[in-house]
Amino acid sequence: MTPGRRSSTFTRLLRHGFTDPSAAERLLDGPELAPVRDDPVLLEALGATADPDLALHGLARLLEAQDGPTAHRELLDTLIAAKPLRDRLLGILGASAALADHLTRHPSDWQVLVMYEPHDLHPGLAEFEHGLAEATDPVSLRVAYRRCLLSIAARDVCGTTDVAETAAELADLATATLRTALVLAERAAPADAAACRLAVIAMGKCGGHELNYVSDVDVIFVAEPAEGVPEPKALGSATKLASHLMRICSETTVEGSIWPVDANLRPEGRNGPLVRTLSSHVAYYQRWAKTWEFQALLKARPVAGDAELGRAYIDALEPLVWKAADRENFVADVQKMRRRVVENIPVAELERELKLGPGGLRDVEFAVQLLQLVHGRTDPALRSGTTLDALQALAAGGYVGREDAARLEEAYRFLRSMEHRIQLYRLRRTHLVPEAEADRRRLGRSLGLRTDPAAELNREWRRHTGVVRRLHEKLFYRPLLDAVAQLAPGEARLRPDAARERLVALGYADPAAALRHLEALASGVTRKAAIQRTLLPVLLGWFADSADPDAGLLNFRKVSDALGKTPWYLRLLRDEGAAAENLARVLSAGRLAPDLLMRAPEAVALLGDGTGAGPVAVGGGLAPRDRAQLEQEILAAVGRAENAAQGVTAARGVRRRELFRTAAADIVGSYGTETSPAEADQGALVDRVGAAVSDLTRATLAGTLRAVVRDGWGNTLPTRFAIIGMGRFGGHELGYGSDADVLFVHEPQDGVDEHEASAAANKVVAEMRRLLQLPSADPPLLIDAGLRPEGKSGPLVRTLKSYEAYYRRWSLVWESQALLRAEHVAGDQDLGRRFTELIDPLRYPAHGLTDESVREIRRLKARMEAERLPRGADPKLHTKLGPGGLSDVEWTVQLLQLRHAHREPGLRTTRTRRALAAAREAGLLSAEDAGILDEAWVLATRVRNAVMLVRGRAGDTFPTEPRELAAVGRYLGHGAGHAGDMLDAYRRTARRARTVVEELFYAD
Predict the structure, then answer these.
(1) Coil, strand or helix at 275
(2) How far apart are CA 633 and CA 640, in angstroms?
(3) Residue 516 CB-density burial (10 A; 0-12 exposed, 13-18 middle, 19+ buried)
(4) Which one of 203-217, 376-390, 391-405, 563-577 scores highest in mean pLDDT?
(5) Structure confidence by residue, pLDDT tens digits, 574-616
(6) Alpha carbon distance 2, 950 (integer Å)
(7) In sequence order, which ranges of 427-510 are alpha helices (DSSP H)?
(8) Alpha-carbon torsion (456, 462, 463, 464), positive or negative
(9) Residue 498's pLDDT is what?
(10) Mean pLDDT confidence for 65-94
């Protein structure tokens, strides 16, 4: 073969999805496949399978196993000529290594896939019984079983049947297998067969007509004596038959096993007799059965043996099932069982557990079964053993919202499809999503995800489990369920003890207090109480999704007490879907946002979509407002005020409301909602908060300056006056707890004495600072002028000429560095522009920095690290001064600006991330290093924002209180119980950043 030919084939194989083209080429060049190696139809069909490499390998093995050249040629010819066979056979070979092994052992079985009659497209029990009819022993039964399984899998992987139809076919095949196994057992012991009537009752997924490829088949055995046979003898005979049936299906032979038959759902479980009479079953369920046993009976279905006895079993026990909801502690029993299942999952497997983990299949099944037991007493339409049929009936009856049911069904179908394809690969009983990339790739492709199968699979899986978790909690924990379950004439109320148990299950630390809040919110016959009874079940689930459900519920009560009588509040929560969830997220995410809201509860209207209810003055939606809009509103409010104090009070009120808007949008974006996932771009979240808070601070200063000047001097101040933002303020990077770092500059009006002008400017500054810090319901705005020339020893306000003289004669390198963030933020624009022109040569020196200046900056940085880190603080977790923290990244970027901005215009920006991006584009650091620094800066900033949101006060380190730490983790995207992972992730990110800093900042 020529190198060019090989290269061409190699490329084609890659294009068709092969991951090991070299091995595939060798197989295609081998004697088995050489006649069709260049056939485009074959490669196309292989490329359409879940795993082209696996499919080709299986095909080569199958061809090699054929009995002679004629059989080999027949298979190849049929494969190329008949598309139905090609799709079915290669589809199976690419999805199931176990069925490929079966075909290799039984090389003629591929012929069952050649042609389907119409009745073969959706076979039923009769067709499967026919397929197993020739089995005479356990070995031949297994061969026949897998031959039937081939046809089911072929329809499944080719999309002829959907997941529900496949599950039903698997249940029918299991029924046929149990019947055949019972026949074999009776043939082996005809005397035992004659002595009793034995019925096999399928339970679990087999009983519910929704079986997996590989699953325990749960059964219960019921028997009656044949006429004239003593009961003990008859039960002994029935037990022998039942035991033999179980062995026929379960034992391992040369052809493996079929599946385990599990009879542990019987009365008394493993400790009880394997077979009971009908009267014994009835007596047990009437007297001793637990709630979960009635839940299990929802899926009971007679499948083999004496049909009349099986029907009698169902008729006798079905009425007891529908009385189960009258039992004491019924709902709590079911919930405890669910929690116990989750608690028993090994921690290492929890995140991969498809069936039993949070948001898994069992969540859907439990929620549906609970609702069936509660409402099925009075509505026979709900009495189905099949999960999807029952869910559809619940939706049709109004017991579940149609949209919720549709989303739950979509998620359940996807998760069941995943489960089917995972089990089909090796025909092993497992519910764990594989960890290996190759396994996830095959799994993703088998589900139709072809662009980036492993990544797409992970996204879709997490999305669907997220839907199930939210909807499951909404249905499963709904407090009103207990009231419905304990329904009595004239009474429908939430029992306190059951409600407490439910609240504890949701994560409430103080269920007694939570219950008092619920009673205050939901009691009574008012319209307010009725609407809140409708909202609370949903809100409780959202509160439970936070780190502090108790705070969420308490804050909701406070808001409702304040606004419950206003006509728009409850209408907003009821009619605007986003508002209620947004409110729940905000109220349970920490202290800052609720504190801001409680000072003016009408701001809750911001949480809607901006088009519905609420006071018009608030302005709708959580989208940030730009600086021009903010300034216009604040200046208008100042203009209406009678004096400076009133004007600044109005400005501070707008600031409080807009801080709430920003915080709420940040929380909702970080948490995500049922309709919108959490923002994936952490940098975008940081930039939005920084820009919003900085713009708001600018507007507040502009309004305060207007109010103070108008109150003291009318419309004209004796001096032109400008405010220059510094630090994070000038960089548009303010956080919730940041002070406003500024410089004040003025220039006397024409003809005004400089002393008079200076006195006026200083009076303006003093009055602005006083009014912005006055104790009130609004948070203070602290103005920090510490970065001015000579620091705290220098004058608070200088003229432009004074700045020029100082910088020309006395300026130090740290001041040039500080001026990199300087930007005009309020006051006289022309004066601000001239100040910027004055400092540009200092911050962008014409020839960069001297070596001595670089050494001085490094000395300052080292001294700051040694002296300013708080005593007792863990340096590795200090977001500002710790290694890899904000200071490291910002000083590194600023050193690059000082050295190179004179020739790289992109570096002339006050914003850290923009400067970092410009440095990367200019080739001053690699894209990888820039990405590491950016990630560290964004994460550190997010942590500081999170601490302020959670604790209500600023901090540079992670909180130590467990609930606060968990809340920070939740904001950063780490689920419950993963605070340690969050700290590890921060240390890892900071450590990588510090390595880059040491190379860029300290190295010569």
Answers:
(1) strand
(2) 11
(3) middle
(4) 203-217
(5) 777 688 889 999 999 999 999 999 888 888 888 886 544 444 3
(6) 68
(7) 437-446, 453-476, 480-485, 496-506
(8) positive
(9) 43
(10) 93
Structure tokens at 218: 């749960």
Q: Which of 739, 749, 670, 631 is nearest to 950 (CA)?
A: 670
Judge contact between 704 and 772, C-beta under 8 A.
yes
Q: How far apart are CA 426 and CA 438, in angstroms?
A: 14
The position carrying tokens 């029990």 is: 125
Pairing state between β 261-262 and 783-784 = unpaired
Rg (CA), the chain: 37
Residue 642 phi/psi, 5-degree rounding, is -80, -25
CA distances from residue 367 to 337, 348, 481, 643 in whole angstroms, order as listed: 12, 25, 11, 61
Strands (DSSP E) contained in 804-884 are: 823-827
Structure-token pair, residue 673 = 């909602």
Helix (H, G, I), strand (E, B) or coil at 460: helix
Q: Which amino acid is at 295?
A: Q
For residues 675 and 470, give the distance between their C-alpha atoms in angstroms, rounded to a whole number.
Answer: 11
Contact 895, 857 (CB under 8 A): yes
What is each CA distance from 113 to 88, 121, 147, 417, 465, in whole angstroms? 7, 11, 10, 22, 35
- DSSP SS3 for 84: helix
Condensed to tens digits (0 to 9), the pLDDT of residues 264-297 reads 999 999 999 999 999 999 999 999 998 889 999 9
pLDDT tens by residue, 952-968: 999 999 999 988 999 99
pLDDT of residue 484: 29
- How far is 149 from 134, CA to CA, in rounded Å? 16
Residues recorded for the chain: 1004
675-700 mean pLDDT: 93
Each residue of 648-672: pLDDT tens digit?
999 999 999 999 999 999 999 998 8
Beta carbons of 327 and 291 less than 8 angstroms apart: yes
Residue that has been written with the tokens 């637990």 in this structure: 290
Nearest by Cα to 857 from 869, 843, 870, 847: 843
Q: Report how far apart the first and last C-alpha atoms of the chain are (Å, whole number).
A: 56
Phi, psi of 137 (to 5 degrees): -160, 175
In the three-class reduction of DSSP (H, G, I as helix; E, B as strand; rest coil), residue 20 is classed as coil
* pLDDT at residue 475, as a whole number: 63
- The tokens describing 167, both together, are 């599950």
